[in-house]
Specification:
The chain is of the alpha/beta class and 231 residues long. It has one domain: Rossmann fold (3-Layer(aba) Sandwich). Helices cover 51% and strands 17% of the residues. The chain contains 9 helices and 8 strands. The strands form 2 sheets. The protein has a 5-stranded parallel sheet. A hairpin with a 2-residue loop joins strand 4 and strand 5. Helix 2 packs across helix 5. The two termini are 12 Å apart. It binds cytidine-5'-diphosphate. Cytidine-5'-diphosphate (CDP) binds next to helix 2, helix 4 and helix 8.
């Protein structure tokens, strides 16, 4: 008998490796992986490109009407990449210019309900791995497996610096550190769906785990939950 499909919600601070484990899990299970952060980044990119004053509610509401987000699977990266009004913007949304503003944009109530509704639709048939900040608490409070990921701040800064440095050798460690600290602060302290560990989430600290060890641990949890669901 086929195993029942479940929802796997992965939340945590920035750059703690959520997307790596989410991507590997989705590939192993044949599930879709959705990077919810990419949606907030794409909305931010749209606001920046179109000079939207995101402190003005009416402007934000109007702008959201013109935003269409979708995902397209890229065989090479093994990941669903985000399309903003049918343009693949996966590359642009990783820019520091977007990273500097995204947490302010993601704190806006209208932006959150816009993104949350789409995320819930994407998971309506289960069989999905989604990572973000509020997936286990707000988007899928009924997810069968909720993981809260952490890693030490030093490890996180180093990882993100290495990623960004590959595309921009002018970036400094200090700049990356400041951005991560600022985003973690805003994400944890906003009014709407702040970053929190869900009560029923399991914690995964991967500061000292290899990719293989981390995947084995998580697959153990998946097995438990899928079996429990089948009973
Ligand atoms: O890759 P990284 O962990 O640095 O961030 P991300 O997942 O790309 O998310 C970028 C930003 O989007 C976060 O700092 C949050 O401000 C926001 N976000 C959110 O508010 N809720 C989510 N479910 C996902 C991201």
């Amino acid at each position: 008998m086929a195993k029942p499909k479940i929802i796997i919600a992965i939340d945590g601070y920035s750059s703690c490796g959520k997307s790596t484990v989410a991507k590997e899990l989705a590939a192993l299970l044949g599930y879709n992986y959705i990077d919810s952060g990419a949606m907030y980044r794409a909305i931010t990119l749209y606001f920046l490109r179109n000079d939207i004053d995101y402190k003005n509610d009416a402007e934000v509401i109007n702008a959201l009407k013109d935003i269409h987000l979708s995902f397209a699977f890229n065989e090479v990266s093994g990941k669903s990449e985000i399309l903003l009004n049918d343009e693949n913007v996966e590359h642009y949304i990783r820019d520091m210019i977007v990273a500097e503003k995204v947490s302010e944009v993601a704190a806006i109530k209208e932006v959150r309900s816009f993104a949350t509704a789409q995320q819930q639709k994407l998971g309506s048939e289960r069989g999905i791995v989604m990572d973000g900040r509020d997936i286990g608490t707000t988007v899928f409070p009924d997810a069968e497996l909720k993981i809260f990921m952490t890693a030490s701040p030093e490890v996180r800064v180093k990882r993100r610096f290495q990623e960004l440095y590959a595309g921009n050798p002018n970036i400094t460690l200090e700049e990356v550190k400041h951005n991560l600290e600022l985003r973690d602060y805003i994400d944890s302290n906003r009014e709407e769906s702040p970053l929190r560990q869900a009560k029923d989430a399991v914690v995964l600290d991967n500061s000292h785990l290899t990719r293989e060890e981390q995947l084995a641990k998580v697959m153990g949890w998946v097995e438990e939950r899928a079996v429990a669901k089948a009973l």
